[in-house]
Every structure is written in C-alpha cells, then in structure tokens.
Specification:
The protein is mainly β. The protein contains no helices and nine strands.
Length: 128
C-alpha cells in the first residue's frame, strides 16, 4: 500500500490595501535646451542653475543629460546647435511662469525669462 498524504487546504488571508488620496506625486520639470556652439568650443552646466518662480523661489537642478556639470567641460567637435536636457524638481502648483537661470561667479551665465507654465512641465528653450 502506498503512503497517501492528506490533502491540505491553504486559505490566504484577506489583504486590505489603503491608498491615501492626497499622496504627493513626484513632479519634475524637463527643459530641453539648444545653444549655438562653435567647433572646438566647450559647454558645461553649473549646479547653481535653477528655475526661479515669480515669487523668487529657486527650484533645484536634479539631473542633466548631454552636458557636463562644472567644473568638467563637454567639448564640441563641429559647429552646431548643441542640445542637452535639464531636469528640475517640481514647480509649486501656484506657479504660472518662471525663468531659467544659471547663477555663476563669472560672466556667461544664461537667463531665459518669462517661461509660461504648461500642463506637461516639458519645455524647449533657445540659449544664446
């Protein structure tokens, strides 16, 4: 006669998941930048680059793509309109317009003012 093992029934406990309807969603602002650059030139972005709201609140740069962070340089081999992307922490919901400002201790920092807020928080700017 074979060993017969008894059938065991497993009951899974009920799990209740609660979601906070007011949970904050992570927000980010993406700025696609374009800037004319001569062959042999170099570009970099300073960590002191911010989005500045109408009331003067500075929104921090959190990530960058396609460009070096100072003091390093991104070298450009041919004359071109160079493109890179900056990602910032989220803007306050009350913000209607803002500026992009590179605040640096030397000449050449850029400023793009009066950028109108949109629903996607993705922007394209031309730097000079």
């Amino acid at each position: 006669m074979e060993d017969v093992k008894p059938l065991i029934e497993i009951q899974e406990p009920e799990v209740e998941i609660q979601v906070d309807p007011f949970e904050e969603v992570e927000k980010q602002v993406t700025v696609h930048c374009s800037i004319p650059c001569p062959a042999g030139g170099g570009l970099r972005i300073w960590p002191s680059t911010y989005l500045v709201t109408e009331d003067g609140t500075k929104i921090s740069l959190v990530h960058w793509e396609g460009i070096s962070l100072a003091p390093e340089w991104t070298r450009v081999n041919k004359e071109q309109n160079y493109r890179f992307t900056l990602i910032f922490a989220g803007l306050p919901s009350s913000c209607k317009a803002f500026s992009l400002e590179e605040i640096i201790p030397e000449p050449g920092g850029f400023h793009v003012g009066n950028i109108k807020r949109n629903k996607t928080d993705v922007y394209k700017v031309q730097l000079s």
